Amino acid sequence: MSENRELHQYWEVWYPQAAATGLLLARGLIAPMKTLLFHAPAEVITVEVSDHQGQRLAYGTDLKQTDTTPICRLRREGERITRQDIWPTEAELGLLVLLPGGEVGTLKSWWHAADKKEWRWQVEFYNTIR
Question: Cβ neighbours of residue 55 under 8 Å, at least 6 residues apart?
Answer without folding.
Answer: none
